[in-house]
Write a structure and sequence with these properties.
This protein has 332 residues and is mainly beta. It has two domains: 193 residues, no CATH class; 77 residues, no CATH class. It contains four helices and 17 strands. The strands form four sheets. Strands 1, 2, 7, 8, 9, 10, 11, 12, 13, 14 and 17 form an eleven-stranded antiparallel beta sheet that branches. A two-stranded antiparallel ribbon has the order 3-4. A two-stranded antiparallel sheet has the order 5-6.
Length: 332
């Protein structure tokens, strides 16, 4: 039978820790299958309203090519308004006064203020194609949150695409830990990494990778989604995801003068079978030497609803001379 006791704040400890999980996915059944669902989009800078703007792209679900291009530009490259390598934004300056009300602002009031989800405090060398048609193409890889959790772990993303007509030496792309995607060719010896060649960016906390420019063999990785068509057999994704798990620890303390009485009906002299029930206990139950046993601990919410049960490996007697503490741990 059960007995209840209220926890205090000192009895409950919550400890967070970060857990990582590695993924290796290859082939169409894994990459775009319902269990994983990594999507690959082909984005083109079509004029809004043009016939080609709404041309569909994607392997798991579809989106228009124009929307893919403009969405990436709006979210991650909004300072690329006139140049492929970015614009210097004009900002407002302030001359501090004696108080905040005395501060003097000068310069343009309206200036672009965009976050663009920078992945590092270091200066990032970004490139975004601003041409039209074939001169403004990108490939966006969208990893669902059920795979990347709270974010992709830096320095773990690796994309491999073996030989094809457009990429005769294959493609290998990794992240540099600062949000940049670096490309190298695949050779029989594994290939040498060209660390000077940035071909796009990865946004760890959103599970998004964007290829915006060419690889070191002269082909355009921004148009990769166009070349692969429906053939995903030559692709492989490798990355680690991260998620924070919270360990809940509840300290269940039974003082030496608590829970010395049992409501277990089997302790009644006539607790079952034929005849009438009574409330008379066996003599040994009322003895001062009687010690009830604990077999499990249940955790209840404020509505007295059972939310968790912890069973002991063996029955534990409740001491009459010292406090008994049972630690219950579980992860959420």
């Amino acid at each position: 039978m059960s007995a209840f006791k209220q926890f205090t704040t000192k009895d409950v400890i919550q400890t967070p820790f970060i857990a990582d999980k590695g993924w290796i996915l290859s082939g169409s059944s894994e990459i775009t299958g319902s269990e994983y669902g990594i999507n690959i989009f082909y984005g083109i800078n079509h004029p809004i309203g043009s016939t080609n703007y709404d041309t569909q792209t994607g392997f798991v679900y579809s989106a228009s090519q124009g929307n893919v291009y403009n969405s990436a530009k709006h979210l991650y490259y909004t300072n690329f308004l006139t140049q492929s390598t970015g614009d210097n934004a004009t900002t407002q300056s302030v001359t501090p006064g004696a108080t905040r009300e005395d501060d003097y602002f000068f310069g343009p009031i309206i200036a672009p203020r965009f976050d663009n989800y920078l992945q590092s405090t270091l200066e990032q060398n970004r490139f975004f194609p601003t041409g039209s048609g074939a001169n403004g193409t990108i490939t966006t890889i969208s990893i669902p949150q059920k795979l990347f959790g709270e974010g992709i772990v830096p320095n773990t993303f690796k994309f491999t695409y073996t030989e094809s007509a457009a990429f005769p030496t294959g493609v290998q792309v990794i992240d540099d830990g600062e949000g940049n995607l670096i490309s190298s060719s695949i050779t029989s010896s594994g290939g040498d990494l060209n660390t000077d060649l940035v071909v796009g960016q990865i946004f760890y906390n959103q599970g998004i990778a964007v290829f915006t420019t060419g690889s070191n063999n002269g082909n355009n990785l921004g148009a990769l989604a166009k070349y692969i068509g429906s053939d995903l057999r030559k692709m492989k994704f490798e990355f680690s995801s991260s998620i924070t798990i919270y360990e809940q620890q509840y300290k269940c303390t039974i003082l030496e003068n608590e829970f010395g009485y049992s409501t277990n009906p089997t302790l009644l002299k006539n607790s079952g079978g034929t005849g009438s029930y009574n409330v008379e206990y066996y003599d040994y139950v009322t003895s001062s030497f009687f010690e009830p046993y604990v077999t499990c601990v249940g955790l209840y919410n404020e509505n007295t609803e059972l939310v968790a049960v912890g069973k002991l490996s063996f029955p534990l007697p409740i001491s009459q001379f010292t406090d008994t503490t049972i630690i219950v741990n579980y992860d959420v």
